[in-house]
């Protein structure tokens, strides 16, 4: 039986043809690998509108209800990152989505290397808050309405503090059950980055901005760290879903041949964290 596809892409985790690749922190990538990631990402936003990236962003918007503020948040976004990663790997099979450890920048996020011109550019400018520097300068997005890629730091030219390394260590220590862990992580630690960068990042079309994927790779890494810290609960999944109680057998729309239980082992999805 053929597996279901989205945009013609096989969605079933299969044998890893290039082995299990490491997702690295963005600062540890070589310049060549960073440029390869950025160039592959830019390729998704070429051609007629809506581009492949525009459509990918709209998948996230369509998942507003069932993949947020409930147990599906972590497994849905885990596969969403894999879905992007496989698209990037069509251009370079060794590409992985790097994570941005924003705890390292927690007390002055606006100074993070990710906002440098040779990374992903800085704050938006002008009345429309358009990103005007770096590799994303001049980007025009289809959703939520046609216009430039936007950022609007929440404190003018600065960003309010993010969770610190100690804050994340405390979150991991205090939330020993998945049902409390996923809520604690999705709340302020995750949400603060969206609010702080603002612009498109503070909408359901946040994936317009590549920083969304670096941020969510960090969120996914924190889940992976939690699984490693509590190995007897690594396949634990409980709490509420959009309609009812969550179960490992729940499907992950729009990839309706995938289940939450397929998401527990990142190596089965061909990646692990450095």
From TrEMBL:
A Pfam family recorded for this sequence: Tyrosinase
Occurrences of domain Tyrosinase copper-binding (ranges): 68-85, 209-220
InterPro entries: Di-copper_centre_dom_sf, Tyrosinase/Hemocyanin, Tyrosinase_Cu-bd
Chain coiled-coil ranges: none
Record keywords: Copper, Metal-binding
Record bears the keyword Aminoacyl-tRNA synthetase: no
Keyword Metal-binding: yes
Recorded GO MF terms: metal ion binding; oxidoreductase activity
Gene3D superfamilies, per the entry: Di-copper center containing domain from catechol oxidase (1.10.1280.10)
Domain of life assignment: Eukaryota
The protein's name in its UniProt record: Tyrosinase copper-binding domain-containing protein
Organism: Thamnocephalis sphaerospora
Lineage of the species this protein comes from: Eukaryota, Fungi, Fungi incertae sedis, Zoopagomycota, Zoopagomycotina
